[in-house]
Amino acid sequence: GGWKVISGDTGHLEGSSTLGIEGGQAYVGNISIGTPPQQFKVVFDTGSADLWVPSTYCDSVPCYTHNVFNPHVSTTFRLSGMPVDLTYGSGRMVGFLGYDTVRIGKLIDMGQPFGLSKSQYGMEHAPFDGILGLGYPSLATQGTTPIFDTLKRRSLIPQPVFAFYLSSQKENGSMLMLGGVDHSYHKGKLQWIPVSQPHYWQITMNRRVVTALRRLIGARLVDNEYAVSCSYVARLPTIVFSINGNNYPLPPQAYIRKNLRGQCFSNFGGGTENMSHSETWILGDVFLRLYFSVYDRGNNRVGLAPAV
């Protein structure tokens, strides 16, 4: 899946682009930083707003197993030196801030702030080098502007939207659309849901189901994961999420996964992200494989429709 110009609501969206991304557990695509361009695999993350990659200044183990950015060979690199310390569900990155040209497909973003790692924790086997955050600017390192906001502010994209099509084939077919929506990737009309708090891409669900779910599917805790009997999967119920008055069914094949040892686990994670006392659900790739999702920053809303 390479880049192509896509058509959206407003006729031909010349500036919008689609980027082929790899599926699996994380959604990873290629970007480049610097002049001449240095290539990186980044995971596109709606839960954060910073861009960072490993650097030649890093001496942690993950930096030996991933691509690293060398600022000395980029003619467009500028150092800020401001310290950066970012924590994620899967690890932590400590480093400093720099500015350089970032290319995402055919979009060219000059002087973009990004983090260069000096030490990284817990990402030795990550299928990506760094992280590109697509969250709200309030989540970004203070004094920096996230990539999406730069693209928006400089009118490098026609509309302040991005969308994910997550193919169920791990290898190919998934894509990130920036600046426009290709409607051939979903069935029916997009149903729009207001973002409840423009900080996280967060929407309110009107049914609390998590504990009932685990009881219902007879899940038991194994190594911090909820295990279920594989022979039981076919008899499991379709779970219906009710969001903003619309129902989104999730069949068991979508929420149960098999590991290499043939054990079956529920994809309903408890989540350690403590945002408030209300139950936080992260509608992850399981849900997004079934539903095409559009993130509309212009109107602070998320659109969902069954994926093709």
Automatic annotation (TrEMBL):
Where on the tree of life does the source sit, at the highest rank? Eukaryota
Provide the protein's localization.
Secreted, Extracellular space
Pfam families associated with the record: Asp
* GO terms for MF: aspartic-type endopeptidase activity
Record-level GO cellular component terms = extracellular region
Respond yes or no to whether keyword Hydrolase is given for this record: yes
Q: Name one GO biological process term.
A: proteolysis
InterPro entries for the chain:
Aspartic_peptidase_A1, Aspartic_peptidase_AS, PEPTIDASE_A1, Peptidase_aspartic_dom_sf
Per its UniProt record, what PROSITE patterns does this chain match? ASP_PROTEASE (PS00141), PEPTIDASE_A1 (PS51767)
Q: State whether keyword Hydrolase applies.
A: yes
Q: Which UniProt keywords apply?
A: Aspartyl protease, Disulfide bond, Hydrolase, Protease
Q: Which residues cross the membrane?
A: none
Disulfide linkages recorded for this protein, renumbered to the chain, are C58-C63, C230-C264
Q: Where is the Peptidase A1 domain?
A: 27-305
The record's annotation in PANTHER family points to:
BETA-SITE APP-CLEAVING ENZYME, ISOFORM A-RELATED (PTHR47966), PEPSIN A-5 (PTHR47966:SF49)
The record's comment on protein family reads: Belongs to the peptidase A1 family.
What this protein is called in its record is Peptidase A1 domain-containing protein
Q: Per the UniProt entry, what species is this protein from, by scientific name?
A: Monodon monoceros
What gene, per UniProt, encodes this protein? LOC114887315
